[in-house]
Protein: alpha-glucosidase
Organism: Amorphotheca resinae ATCC 22711
Amino acid sequence: MRLSLLPSAQWTACFVLLSVLCSLFTPAVSVKYENFKTCDQSGFCKRNRAYADRAGQLGSSFESPYQIAPESLSWKNGQLQGVILKTIDAAGETVRLPLTISFLASGSARVVIDEEKRQKGEIELRHNSIARKERYNEAESWAIVGGLDLSTTAKEERDATKSIVKYGPDGQFEAVVTFAPFGIDFKRGDATHVKLNDRGLLNMEHWRPKVEKAEPKEGEETPVQVQQGEDESTWWDESFGGATDSKPRGPESVALDITFPGYDHVYGIPEHAGPLSLKETRGGSGHHTDPYRLYNADVFEYIMDSPMTLYGAIPFMQAHKKDSTVGVFWLNAAETWIDIIKEKESHNPLSLGIGSKIDTKTHWISESGLIDVFVFLGPTPKDVTKAYGELTGYSQLPQEFAIAYHQCRWNYITDEDVKDVDRKMTKYQIPYDVIWLDIEYTDDRKYFTWDPLTFPDPIGMLKQLDQSDRKLVAIIDPHIKKKDGYHVVDEMTKKDLAVHNKEGKPYEGWCWPGSSYWVDCFNPAAISWWKTLFPYSAFKGSAENLFIWNDMNEPSVFNGPETTMPKDNLHHGNWEHRDVHNLNGLTFHNATYQALLSRKKGELRRPFILTRSFYAGSQRLGAMWTGDNQANWDHLAAAFPMILNNGIAGFPFAGADVGGFFGNPEKDLLTRWYQAGAFYPFFRGHAHIDTRRREPYLAGEPYTGIITRALRLRYSLLPSWYTAFHEASVDGTPIIRPHYFEYPSDEQGFAIDDQFFIGSTGLLAHPVVTQGADSVEIYIPDDELYYDYFDYTPYSGQGKHTMSAPLDKIPLLMQGGHIFPRKDRPRRSSGLMKFDPYTLVIVLGKDGTAKGELYVDDGDSFEYEQGAYIHRVFQYSNDILESKNIGTKGKLTDKYLKSMKDVVVERIIIVGAPASWTGKSSLKGGEELEYHAAEGGKAAWATVKKPGVKIGEDWKIDFSVSHDEV
């Protein structure tokens, strides 16, 4: 029986029955590989890999068919324009490919290659298609928000074979554009750091008409076809998993090799489950056999250490070697594959030093669109991330509640259930800020409705949460149930705001509600309409403390090819879905963001929206999580490399489902996961509908107590976390930072991905992610002093150190030379901590100094943009602790400072306090000092109680007083 042919009601019944039956079993196998393509099953990937193989086999005799026509070149205002000629036959016939190389004021460079015939619309489409003829050229309008100003200082020199452009800060960068074959070497100083088309793998599949072969007449045998030249088998249509993709424009893939000479490590290109330092995909030790794939998909129970696609795609890569970082951003929203090869090149020890270097060679392949590549020459990781952020936007500064703890499962079954969990979290004194609702809260899975039987009083539920300044997040997905009388679908179809199929009619597919349509958020009219659904008067049962979760926005289509939408579907402007697939999640996320901004006239609060699918630029809109993980130790261990790579790629507000979405974690695993989750930028416990309930208070002792302490650790450090989020929002620096970010010279740390620094606090965390472990090997990258966060045990000396880590212990070090803020009074939620006093922790370095920052605002509105914030630097030197303002005064600064005038520093802790303080009980200003001498292997420390200083003011505290009599 083919379910797709059943009437809607019967199909839904069968689907529900099937879901119920499946839920009775715990899957023994994770992702179904057969549902997703390999490179060999993806026509354009296979063709371009074969092209690379041919080039490799021919070696030096291979000649790239692409060269610049020198007479076409022109230089104006920091931009080099011309035409690349692609030779396509022995007679010398060529295809014209317009080229633009832009040198930006930021120091970045951009290379764009188009195809003239498609650009001008001088092609014919098959199947009477109404799709656009051009290569997709609108990714920039979604991903790029700034940083495109052209350099006014770049200078070009040209001869018969090449063009040389000097650009960047003080003209330190250089681009050498070679005409025949076309290639670009990007240099910093005298060294080449990035090479485009070094191996000659540039390939733009130009338009050509399909030559129809005559069908054999009746009685004639079909002639045997002998493959000659290129493999045309997937040029015009392609089948996979029972679905056929019509290709009205024919073959149109683009590919380019990008080499990082001398670079051993590359990072980024999320989302994949694997190590921080990306593996090779063609040869090498422990390599993958397929390229890394970027094609957003609903991957059920994804597997570990795999290059296969997941839910998000950010085609941004960093390459790093000692004291140098560079990067590339491949601005293409179509399905993309990336091969990585690391080749060792031996050098003459007499001329270039003993040993060898590694060249990392990458091959980028996309199904359609332009070649549009940004090149960043660093030289530091922070320089690269900042330059990328100037283009795509920095991470959203979220509401403060969003960085606290979120309690979720699929599903809290009634509004009374929600209120009961809320009451019990309070009863057990377990802090949390947000409780979540999955799809079961809706009436028959119709979004913007509530089930009248199970959620009859959503406003009452929200009011109870608000009493503790807690929030609710409700899921709203892009699939809209096809049901007569449902006002949302009726409006959407009436206004023609759904994604269309290849015939130009609304596309119908299957997802959680059964038969559904998908809102097309590429359409400005769809965004305007979407905004009308969210006002409190329209979304009945919603209130100011309700926020949104956008799931399934890859988009997930249960009966679609690779569980997503057909590539020949059509979006606004008649762009094919193949052109925009990886942008789809961002467009829906953006529509919801715009909607939350306009919920109520006169109310302008920062939205909070979690997304599963994402692209470059999604960081401007909210948070992401790593999707449907499993309750096992491997998935716990995998989360940090995934989150770190997301941060490197400009989207640091990331997390993983604490406890694992699928399965029932044993209590040790659940406990360790909460300890790890306390260091996720986005911190949420979540579970599948078929799992046992696992709210922290259900774990029982000692587990509940240990989990609660981990949660309280997160809450006490919220001022430091919020300061790190602010830093990310202004310069793109990741919130949790891998070693190479902080120590770009330390080669031993370049591949470390199980420990990390938190913002600029000097806190170095190495949560336990291994079953049965009661210690960890934590790596110290320098000769500074480090101290155990909890008992002040000192550690020093570069290299690995063993830290004891029984179940109730989180391995967390404080690096000397830092000051970080805390709030130590336990509360039910972060909102209730707003006016609590601060504790400053001073961790003295070897030189007796320390420094740190605090950023704080109202944690809710956009008034910080008008100066309503406090930003201070704390410095300790020569026995003086000083607080200085580093903010910029704005229209609302005085008003905000007045609201915070009674917020004080109630305690100062000095770790590594000097022995000369022995016997001292007060400071020069009369502040009470409590000194604890070093003993039992613990460092000396001291506490200043009630120093009498306010958080929003300048002040100094003098520690340089004589000893009191003992």
